[in-house]
Amino acid sequence: MQFSPESNDIIQHLLTHFPPERRESALIPVLHLAQREFKALTPEVEELLAQTLEVPIVRVRECLTFYEMFSDKPVGKYHFQVCWNIACSLLGAEHLIDYLSKRLGIRPGEVTKDGKFSLRGMECLGACSEAPAMLLNEELHTNLTQEKLDKMLKEIGVP
Questions:
Q1: Cβ atoms within 10 A of the Cβ of 88, count?
Q2: In a structure prediction context, what are the per-residue pLDDT tens digits for the chain, which is 159 residues long?
Q3: What is the pTM (predicted TM-score) of this model?
Q4: Are 52 and 24 in contact (CB under 8 A)?
Q5: Residues 6+ apart with CB under 8 A from 8
Q6: Per-residue burial over 89-126, b = 16 or more CB atoms within 10 Å of its CB, e = otherwise
Q7: In the chain, domain spans
């Protein structure tokens, strides 16, 4: 397993921003890159990251398990992450999760059989003043309503 030449170039560029003894400072952006490239941060990807950054594998695992934006299981091409923290919950996040679940035919934590869609609830996105909020892949959507979800779903081909 290895990074694509394009990803490897990006990693090497990122590493120029940190002194050699601080290579692990590049871990979060490299985790994002690895997730986009490999779709899941499996144990094999963790090992690759540790070797690439020359850091202990436990450092990679700590970041992967601490931050919710990373997944050790494949996610869909369209990954819905709905905030279910207090502000979003008070403004209808559970209803929106249930609605997405019905429309996509999956429960939170699942991926459709064709791998096109995945859904999960997640903790705070830091958009409480514009709750409810959601990430669709890496794009933040705020002040969500069922109508806004319908528009997004239509744009990505959900009947």
A1: 28
A2: 899 999 999 999 999 999 988 988 999 999 999 988 998 899 999 999 999 999 999 999 999 988 878 888 888 999 999 999 999 999 999 999 999 999 999 999 999 999 999 999 998 888 999 999 999 988 999 999 999 999 999 999 887
A3: 0.78
A4: no
A5: 2
A6: bebbbeebbebbbebbebebebbeeeeebbbbbbeebe
A7: 5-66, 78-155
What is the CATH class of 5-66? mainly alpha
Report the distance separating Cα 96 and Cα 143, nearest Å: 11
Are residues 108 and 120 in contact, defined by beta-carbon separation less than 8 angstroms? yes
CATH of span 78-155:
3.40.30.10
- What residues have CB less than 8 Å from 150, skipping those under 6 apart? none
Burial 13-52 (b: 16+ CB within 10 A, else e): ebbeeeeeeebbbbbeebbebbbeebbebbeebbebbbeb
| 158, two tokens | 């959900």
**Maximum separation of any 2 CA atoms in the chain, in Å:** 52
Question: What does residue 63 show for φ and ψ, rounded to 5 degrees?
Answer: -65, -45
Task: Answer whether 5-66 and 78-155 agree in fold.
Answer: no
Cα separation, 21 vs 80, whole angstroms: 37
